[in-house]
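Risk register update: the risk that structure generation would not scale has been downgraded. Supporting records follow, first protein first.
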Amino acid sequence: MVAAQDTTVVRSHRASNPSRTLVCLGFCGGGTGPYHAWGGVVPSDVDLAAICYPGREGRFLEGFARNWDELADDATEAVLSAATEGPYVLFGHSMGGWMAFDVAVRIDKRGGPAPEALVVSSANAPSRGLTVKDMFPDQRDTDEQLLGWMRTHGLMAEHVLNDPDLQEMALELMRADIRVRDTFAHHSGHRVKIPLQVITGENDDVIDPDAGVQWKNLSLGDYRHDVLPGGHFYTPDIWRRLPTFIPALTAPTSPRSEGR
């Protein structure tokens, strides 16, 4: 397991007197970049941080995680590192939603500090296990199919699209994440005690119609399910403003933030 480093928690927005931090976990094939723009829409007293997984960005020289547990161990240490600065809300999109749930469970087993809330976006409940619907992109996809998927969902910047060497690196990263994702297994009985918010896209055909009910069964605390316009990544405008749909970011300040 790789210990949390300065390059592991990427803080793209700092508030002058922060009440909490929004900590984001990446989706399959993604890095911290898609979250940086949220610095302009999070509440003025909220810090923004994203967890960098091994093998990319500032951790480029590290090897990719070999399986789900290895990545979850690494992400847990990184989130706990972010938590040393005070209260936080934990967010994960798609594969990152499962990772955020798993990390929250692991932190609870260790005795905290737990997030004030868990927010999972565009993810089916992990309790149903890894199904064909969740296995997209697929390990069997060609390079062209993977590149097409990344173009469609805006995961590749223009300079990457025009650079064969950067394309190759993006494909390597995506395939590494797919391999990790495909080793995921839910452990029966795992639930979260903290408030849980589930966000899904109204036109996302990846999400089960009863995903909300399945997620609610994994929560022992407050629960809400919000359906937003668009597909797996919503509409571009909704994605840009996604933090504005997270009530936990404007909730009364936790006592733990005193003296921060």
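Supporting record for the second protein:
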Amino acid sequence: MQWETVIGLEVHVQLATRSKIFSGASTAFGAEPNTQACAVDLGLPGVLPVLNEQAVAMAVQFGLAIHAEIPEVSVFDRKNYFYPDLPKGYQTSQMYHPIVGAGEVEITLDDGSTKRIRVHHAHLEEDAGKSLHESFSNGLGHAMTGIDLNRAGTPLLEIVSEPDMRSAREAAAYLRGIHAIVTYLGISDGNMAEGSMRCDVNVSVRPAGQAEYGTRAEIKNVNSFRFVERAIEFEVERQIELLEDGGEVIQETRLFDPERDETRSMRTKEEANDYRYFPCPDLLPVVLDQAYLDHLRESLPELPDEKRARFQRELGLSAYDAGVLSATREMAEYFEEVKNICGDAKPAANWVMGELAGALNREGLAIGDSPVSARQLGELIARVLDDTINGKAAKQVFQALWNGQGQSADEVIETKGLKQVTDSGAIEAMIDQVIAESPAQVAQYRDAEPDKRGKMIGYFVGQVMKASRGTANPQQVNALLKAKLDALC
């Protein structure tokens, strides 16, 4: 039987506010446990929440960026459940009237085509604390769990997609699209390693052609693009094997274990009724007028899709190059600075996507951590374009800059003596010497058919470049060599 995969994502984005969604406590990452949870976050008697206006603005900006419906009124609800890291016994969220309505995100598929993934809604909510299961004991050898409430009350925007994705690759592309939007907007740093962005993955399978959805499993708190793909691939295979063996998929919550590369059951999946949602009595409805929406719309930066289109339209880049260079805000800003300094978009794109990207991948670095600044790379490319150095020397300069051996391309070129030799007289002298020292190769060249001489000239070019320590202009070397060798035929 042929099976179709159906995937929906619930992406949790930590908003980049300095204080929490309902209190003035700090949201800074890395503080000592339980030092950033105040009386409001803990729900102590006699305290009342106050909504963080910046969190509202950030949520609305996201909605505008995905062309979503923005309701005039949104309402906060209480989601009731008991868990040790939820000291209030409920989470303040938005169930019935979320702040962002239906929208869409466009993704690029492996074949270069695009697909629109519908967003059902996005809602504001507070994060819970964190349970720590490692390195705790009661001194008698019994394992214990520690509770860190620093995250309690941190503002989250939960973005709920429709079940429009049909493969692990599509799901990862959608997640990258969300990541690009929120980081371009500056409403989140998107740091998945620190928990600033994570997602719950809903996966089901159904016979190809069947309209009705299969029973879904929810994989909780997946925190990397690669893990999303691996979790989906395992879960799809698990469900198909189960169904083909005559079993049935149960609706449940599962956890992805990256060490074992598998998902495993946590608990049966709750329905909305299990949480006994009701409107929060401590918070008024949020009312947004048109002037407020217009103000936020005018403040939006150039977004990934717009930047990609501009790179193609104004800079003449291919769709692939433009997509890669606009994929993240950091990459786009780095590339544009390189392009502005060297003055030519195509070589700037080639160097950023080639030499720089390769070095970053080898070292496992993000572009924001590159040892070679955009200014340094732009100046290096400029020296290639003005024939100060050739391509081979440029790679040496890049490696020196990467290793911190110079403050600028010019400094490295001067120190290492890499300036390109363009003096025709000097190059001719080196060519004459190479020809004089290579009588056998000259004879072979002279005796060869004219259409085969082009391949044979490479030997002479290599010898001249060796004699010049790689600094001779390759184009001049080729042209002068051919003229001199042909004159001997």
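Residues 236 and 445 are 63 Å apart (CA to CA). On this basis the risk owner (M.S.) recommends closing the item.
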